[in-house]
Amino acid sequence: MNLKKKVFAACFLFLILISFGVKLIEFDNPFSGFHQKRQLDNVVAIENYFLEGVELKRRTTSGSYVLFELPVYQAIVAYLSSSLNDVLFFARSVNLVFAFLSIFLIFKISEALFDFKTAIYAPLFFAFAPLNLSYHRAVMMDISSVFFCLAATWLLIAHLNNINKFWHLPLFVLAGCLSVVTKPLYFFPVGAIALTNFINQYQSPFPVNAINYIKKNLGLVVSFILITATMLGWIWVVGSVNESGSMLDLLKNWSFLLAPKYYALLVFRFTLLILNPFTFLLFIVGMMVILSRYRDKDSIALPFLIPLYFLFFGQANFPHEYYALIMVPYCSLVAGVGAAWLEGILVSNNLIINRKWTL
Fold it and tell me: What does the pLDDT look like over 246-256, one tens digit per residue?
């Protein structure tokens, strides 16, 4: 690696570290950040796990016990904590580790779906997304769920690109199962990409094409069956344990579609939380580039899965902005495509100096 490449790599890592430096502000303050009640609920649960051992039901600040997600994140923090005084430190630190690993996965996904330029821009946009700056150090399991989904996305894309490693599908099943038992709706992008791959290979008649696809991708189909069975089984367990409420309630009320406030919130969140005003413009450009240049590629799923996520799960997203955390990496991918395209235009018009994007 020559000096220029070393300087480029150092600058890239320095920018990533700056984003994490922002997330360390008031790191030891238990009342810092958004959704304080939710964070305090998790702190209480982790402290109980530390003192009494891990249980599926999570104790809340009100004293009640609920079960919604498998407490993977909470159990990891409780295991790592050496005392009650360390719980908050490890709760925030574990999420920062998941966030850092997510940046690496976005780099790999971007490189596999698009090119190296996009793989540079997308992780930076993800690291500095306002929603991530606010929530990456929060005491919430959503950051780990995003990581599980991104891991499943990368393993799926690697398999579809015929990078057949013997460990891809077993790890895909593990990541997928962890995703659906912690936050089922966060697995939606993975299913959308797999469905797009099937549609891109579609040939009439449907039954013959479906059978041929299953034969060609038997391991992947079995993997999705296992993940789906795990998700449905967990939803049944949650519904059986809790006295009221169910994960499926998120799909029962569609009145939000008639609420102007919901669309105003989407505009606000896309321009100031999921992205910022500059990256939002790049996102719009990226959407058009993907729709025009990647119609026969699996990446064509991105312009559709993003709006469909907010359509299908709008009831959850309406009152809680953190449900949009799973869309930040995929929106950052699209914005990265827009940035890479814009750079190409500027270079071709001699407005900026061409650079080699290799490390």
Answer: 666 667 778 88
